[in-house]
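To: structure subgroup
Subject: Chain for Friday's discussion

All,

I'm putting the inputs and outputs inline so they're searchable in the archive.
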Amino acid sequence: MLAPGLYHILFISAALFFIGVYGFLTRRNLITMLMSIELILNSVNLNFIAFNKYLWPQKMDGLFFTVFIIAIAAAEAALAIAIIINLYRSHQSIDVGNAEDLKY
């Protein structure tokens, strides 16, 4: 079976990135917006791994950046879910339109 090349992986990564951007810009639910941000971060991780494998296979830089981004994404998701839970408790909704009164 033919192994996927760099261009195939970059195409998948670009597709994930644009799906994430589309989901973030079109959805009004905070949970789906958070999932879209996670898709964007995963596409970046895929790029790091692909470039590390095909351009610099003897180095581990892409792997370290990926592990760091995964740790940051986990902390970001935990913080965002805590904010969403508090928003739901105070407004009984997780719609972005209802979160606008939190600005002031």
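Points worth raising on Friday:
The chain has one domain: 29-102.
The chain is about 75% helix and 0% strand.

D.
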